[in-house]
């Protein structure tokens, strides 16, 4: 992830706020498959431990595409909640 900054250095895998949504990656579940990155390279990257982190540029992607990236994760390791705390994915 050269030249890519995580949104929150203290919580590289979140939870972080992206637009009005809360997004995080469960690092224990993530297997580094990188499917999320293929779909949303602005939002996700792998760190040195091959775990997905959330990038500063996530806000430049659409929430729809980030949700697509989340759905593409083979182990459902990415979680999204809306501003009211309702789970967007996984349901
Ligand atoms: S698709 Fe899932 S398992 Fe793969 S890197 Fe992303 S969060 Fe991790």
UniProtKB/TrEMBL annotation:
Query: Where's the 4Fe-4S ferredoxin-type domain?
Result: 21-49
User: Entry's Pfam families?
Assistant: Fer4_15
The keyword Iron-sulfur belongs to this UniProt entry's keyword annotation: yes
Q: Where is the signal peptide?
A: none
GO-annotated molecular function: electron transfer activity; iron ion binding; iron-sulfur cluster binding
Keywords assigned: Electron transport, Iron, Iron-sulfur, Metal-binding, Transport
Any idea what job this protein has?
Ferredoxins are iron-sulfur proteins that transfer electrons in a wide variety of metabolic reactions.
What protein am I looking at?
Ferredoxin
Species annotation: Candidatus Roizmanbacteria bacterium CG23_combo_of_CG06-09_8_20_14_all_35_49
Organism taxonomic ancestry: Bacteria, Candidatus Roizmaniibacteriota
């Amino acid at each position: 992830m050269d030249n890519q900054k995580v949104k929150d250095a203290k919580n590289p895998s979140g939870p972080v706020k992206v637009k009005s949504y809360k997004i995080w990656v469960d690092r224990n579940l993530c297997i580094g498959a990188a499917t999320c990155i293929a779909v949303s390279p602005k939002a996700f990257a792998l760190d040195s431990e091959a775990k997905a982190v959330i990038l500063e540029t996530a806000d430049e992607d659409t929430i729809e595409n980030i949700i697509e990236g989340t759905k593409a994760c083979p182990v459902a390791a990415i979680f999204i909640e809306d501003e009211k705390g309702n789970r967007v994915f996984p349901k």
